[in-house]
Amino acid sequence: METNKKTGHGWKGRQYGKAWKQKYVIIEARSTMDATRIWRTLIQAKKDGKFPGITRVDFKKEYQNRREDEQDALQQRSRHIHRRDREMCNTWKSTVIPEEKDHQRNGNRTEKQEASTEERRKKEERKVDFMTGLCLENTNQELCFLQPSAKVIEIKRVNPMGVASEYKIIFVNVHGDFRNKLNKYSPFRIFLNKQKMDIMGCCETKIAGILKIGQIDNVRLVHQPSYYRASTSEMKPSNGMCVLYTKDFEQRVQINRYATDFLTTAIVEEIRTVVIFVYVPPMDRINALHVDRAWKELDEVVEIFQTLQYAILIMGDLNARNKETGDTMNNQSGKRLIDWCRQKAMRILNIEQCKGERTFHADKPATKVSSIVDYAIVNDHPSWKEKEVKIEVLQQYVASDHYPIKCTIKGRVGLKGKSTKLHVPYTCKISNDQKQIEAAAKQIVNKIGRSGKLQIEKCTNQEGYDLLMAEIYNALIGKKVITLKKNKIGSIVKMNLGQEKLMEILDKIDSEIQRGEHGTKMMTQLVERYKEEQKKHRQWE
C-alpha cells in the first residue's frame, strides 16, 4: 500500500483543488487483460447499482507520470538549494576557511549521489513502461491498480471508519449419530455445504471419545466429548458439543477458550463478540443436578464476558418452554429462563423476531408438536445498537428432530487491517504472431485516425478514454492477439446422476417441511427413499 504521506493529498485532489487523503493499493497480476476484465465486471456491477462508489478509470501510466513529475520537481528544488549553498560558499573563497577542501569533497560526493539517483530513476521508468494496468477510484478516496495478476490475489486495506461485514452463525441439536451425519451424502453434510455460514454450533453429538475427524470439505471441526449421567459404563453418553467454522474464518475466531460439558464458546475479536453455544438437559429425576450445573456454568461464563464488556450471543437448546415465546405451555426451565434473562438484562430474539415458530418437531406436524426450545439470546450491550442481529428458524431436513436456527450479525470491521481474497476471472494469453499484431494495429489506427469512424473531439475526457480503450481491446481480441481463458472460481463439484437424485429428494423433503407436512405418509416415504439412495452410493464407493 502506497500513500502520499508528505502532503496528504492524492493527485486528483491537486488537479481539482480538493484536499483529501488518498490511499493507493497496487495488485500484481499476470496480464493487463485480466485487469480489464475485472474492471468491466465492476463497471457492470456499477450499472446494476451494486458499486455506486466507482467513479473513474485511468491508466496507471498517467498516474505514474504525475508522481514522477512531482519527484522531479522535488529533486530540482533540492539541486537548486544545493547550488545556491555552493555559490554562497564560493563568495567566501577569498576568506581563509580551513574546512573548504572538506566542503568541496562533500559537494563532489553529493553530485555522484545525484547521478546514481538519476540512473536508478531511469531504470524505474523503464520498469514502469511494462506496468500499464488500470486504475480504479472510489468515493472512499482509494485507488486500486488492477495489473496482470495470478488467479487469486490478496489485498490488505485499512479503513478508519470500518467496513460493513456480515457474520452467519448457525446452531442445531443434531440428536446423536454424529459420525454418520458427517458422511458424504448425509442430509446434515449437504445442509452444511449449502449454508454459507461462518460458525456452526452443534449439541447432542453423543460421542464419548475424541472425534478424529478434524476437517470436512472447507470446514474445521472442534469437538467437545460427551459426558455420562451416571458412573456406570452401561449408560449412554449424554450431550457432546461441536463447533464448526470455515477455513477463511480460522484466523478471526478463537474456539473453546471457555468450554464445559454443557457449553462451548467462539470469540470473534474483531467485533468484540462472544458466541456461547449451550445445551441444558431436560428436567427429570436423573438430570436435575446436571440442569443446575449447566445453568451455573452458563451464568459464570456470561459474568466473565460481561465484566470484559463483550457483546454476548447465546445460542442453544435450553429445553425451556414458556408461553411468552409463543409456545403452548410452560415448564420449570421456561420459567427459569425468563427470570434469568430479566435478572441479567438479556433479550430473547425468538420473542422479538420469530415468536411462535417452533424449533422442535419430532417428525410430527405443528398441530401435534409445537415446542420452542432452541433460543438466540443477546445481552444489553451498546454495540448491539450498532450491529444488527437477525434470527431465523431454518425449516430444513438435517436428519434431526430439531430445526437449525441461524443468526446473522451485521457489524463494522476495519480498525485493524483486513485481508480480502480476489478471484481473477480470466487468464490472458498474448500471441507472438507478427501478422496478427500488424492487423490489430492497422484496425486501431483506422478507428482512431482523423478519417476513421471514432470521433472523440466532442467527448469529455472520460468518454473519450472509454471509447478509445473499447476500440483497442476490440481490435486486440478480434484479431486474436489476446485470447482469454476463464478461471474456475471456487471448487465446482460435478454431481453424477445418483447425487442429483439425492439432491432432488432432499429438496422435496424441505418443501414438504416448509408446507408443514411433517409426519405425513409422503414425508416418511421421501425419507426412506433418501436412505435407500444413500446406501447405494456407499456401496458404489
UniProtKB/TrEMBL annotation:
<dbReference type="Pfam" id="PF14529">
    <property type="entry name" value="Exo_endo_phos_2"/>
</dbReference>
<feature type="region of interest" description="Disordered">
    <location>
        <begin position="93"/>
        <end position="124"/>
    </location>
</feature>
<protein>
    <recommendedName>
        <fullName>Endonuclease/exonuclease/phosphatase domain-containing protein</fullName>
    </recommendedName>
</protein>
<dbReference type="InterPro" id="IPR036691">
    <property type="entry name" value="Endo/exonu/phosph_ase_sf"/>
</dbReference>
<dbReference type="InterPro" id="IPR005135">
    <property type="entry name" value="Endo/exonuclease/phosphatase"/>
</dbReference>
<feature type="compositionally biased region" description="Basic and acidic residues">
    <location>
        <begin position="98"/>
        <end position="124"/>
    </location>
</feature>
<dbReference type="GO" id="GO:0003824">
    <property type="term" value="F:catalytic activity"/>
</dbReference>
<feature type="domain" description="Endonuclease/exonuclease/phosphatase">
    <location>
        <begin position="274"/>
        <end position="405"/>
    </location>
</feature>
